Amino acid sequence: MKKTIIALICVLSSFAVMAVEWVNGEIVRIDPARNRIVMKHEYIPSIKMQAMTMPFGISSGLNVEPYKPGDQVRFQFRVLDGTLDITTMEKRK
After folding, report:
1. DSSP code for 51
2. What are 32-73's pLDDT values in tens digits?
3. Helix spans in the chain (H)
4. Residue 10 phi/psi, 5° resolution?
5. Which residues form the domain of 51?
6. Which of 42, 52, 73, 80 has its CA 20 to 30 A from that of 28?
7. Domain tally for the chain?
8. Which domain CATH number covers 26?
């Protein structure tokens, strides 16, 4: 019984680690030629980054055509070789 409870706790805790983090932000500038987007974003708990305006890379599968400066969005990112790349983005309502 004890082993079953420990196994269940391990499985449930792995879901918490895999939870997707969404970050709210506002698009300041889009530069498709440099594959970059400048965002004013809120605090990002997973990397302990304060709210600020900064450039992010754009992942190859992300289409930024429907977006323009001033749009309120939420996005997901990944850390790759020391840079932050936006992988998913959607407009907030």
Report:
1. S
2. 999 999 999 999 999 999 999 999 999 988 999 999 999 999
3. 2-17
4. -60, -45
5. 21-91
6. 80
7. 1
8. 2.40.50.320
